[in-house]
Amino acid sequence: MAVTIKDIAKKAGVSPTTVSRVLNNKPDVSDETKKRIQQVIDELNYNPNGIARGLVLDKTHTLGLVIPDISNPFFPEVAKGIEDKAKEAGYSVIFCNTDNHTQGEKEAIELMKSKQVDGMIVSLAINDQNKEELDELAAQDFPVVQIDRKIPESGFPAVVIDNQAAAYKATKYLIDLGHHKIAHISGDLEVKPAQDRLAGFKSALQEVGLSCKEELIREGDYSSQSGYREMKELLDLSEQPTAVFIANDLMALGAYEAVFEAGLKIPEDISIVGYDDIEVASVIRPALTTISQPEYQLGVEASKLLINSLESNEQLEQEDRILAAELVERNSSTNRK
C-alpha cells in the first residue's frame, strides 16, 4: 500500500497539515520539525504524487520549451542548459519543435497551456500572429521568457546574444585581414538574430567605407542546404567575393561543399567565417573560424529567470539579459593584404 501524508504525520508525531507544509516548502515550521519529518519521509521512501501536489498548489512544476529546429546543433545545447537548471530547482521540462512554422508555433503554445505548464520559454519567428499569441499570454499573466529570438514590444523579457556586435566583430576581422569584397549569407530574415547579424555585417563595412552590394547578400534559412545553394550563387558572380561571413555554422558546412565542388580552396581562394561554434566546426578541414555563442549558458539564464519568477510569485523582470559572443580564430580565413 502506498505511503500517505497521514502515515508520515502519525510516525513523526505531527499533523498532516504540518507534513504538507514541509513538502511544499511553506514557512512557520521549525527546523527541528522539518528535520524529523524529512527523516520519516526518507525511512518510508515517500514519493509525493506530482499531479496531486500540482492540483493543491495550482502548480505542476513543469516548464514548456518551444524551439524552432531541434536538428540545429545550437538548440540542443540551449535545451540542455534549460533542463539542467530546471532539474536543479525541482522542475521538469517538456518541449515542442516547430520546424520554423508559424502554425506549429501557435499549436505548441496551445499544447503547453493544455498541459498546464507553470511557464514557457519560447523561441519564435517575428510576425503579427506570434505577437498576438504573446499579447494574449501577457493578458493572462502567463509567465514567458523569450530565448535567442525576441519579438519586439512583446512585453516579455528575453535572454539573447548580442548578435549585432558579434556579426560586426566577425566582419571586422575579415576587413582587417585585407578583404574588401565580402559577402554575407544570412539566416531567415523573419527572425531577429538574422536581422541583427545582417545589421552588424553592414555596420562593419560602412564604418570603413566599403560598399554593401545587394548581390553579395544572400538569404538562407540556417540549413546546410541553403548554405550550399547561396554559396553557389555567390561563386557564379562575375566578380566573386574573397570572403564570406555566414550566419551559422550549418550553412557554412554547405558553403564548404559548394566551394570544393567548384574546384576552389578554403582559405586560399575564399575565406569563410561562421557563427555558433558547433562541435563539428573544429573538426572539419580547414577548421572553421567562427563566432562562439554561450548556448548552454543562454539556456541556464532563461531557466533561472523564469523559475525565480515562479518561486517568488513576482512578475517577470522586463529587462533583457544580453550575453556576449566571442570570435574563435581557426584556419578558414587568411590574409589578403
SSE diagram, text form:
Layout: H1 5-12, H2 16-23, H3 31-44, H4 50-57, E1 62-67, H5 74-88, E2 92-97, H6 102-114, E3 119-122, H7 128-139, E4 144-147, E5 158-161, H8 163-176, E6 182-186, H9 192-207, E7 217-219, H10 224-235, E8 243-246, H11 249-261, E9 271-276, E10 289-292, H12 295-312, E11 321-323, E12 326-328
Parallel strand pairs: 1-2, 1-3, 3-4, 4-5, 5-11, 6-7, 6-8, 8-9, 9-10
Antiparallel strand pairs: 10-12
Pfam families: LacI, Peripla_BP_1
GO molecular function: DNA-binding transcription factor activity; transcription cis-regulatory region binding
Domain HTH lacI-type: 3-57
Structural key phrases:
elongated, alpha/beta, 337 residues, Rossmann fold, 3 domains, six-stranded parallel β-sheet
Secondary-structure-based class equals alpha/beta
Taking strands numbered 1, 2, ... along the chain, how are they ordered across the largest sheet?
2-1-3-4-5-11
Compressed to H and E, one letter per element, the order equals HHHHEHEHEHEEHEHEHEHEEHEE
Q: What fold name goes in the CATH topology slot of the largest domain?
A: Rossmann fold
The overall average pLDDT, rounded, is 91
Distance between the ends: 79 Å
Broad CATH class of the largest domain: Alpha Beta
Beta-sheet strand percentage? 15-25%
The helix tally amounts to: 12
Unreliable runs, pLDDT <50, ≥5 residues? none
> What is the rounded Rg?
25 Å
- General form: elongated
CATH architecture of the largest domain: 3-Layer(aba) Sandwich
Bin the helical content. 40-55%
Give the tally of structural domains: 3
Described by strand count, sense and barrel closure, the largest sheet is: 6 strands, parallel
**Number of extended strands:** 12
Q: What is the CATH superfamily of the largest domain?
A: Response regulator
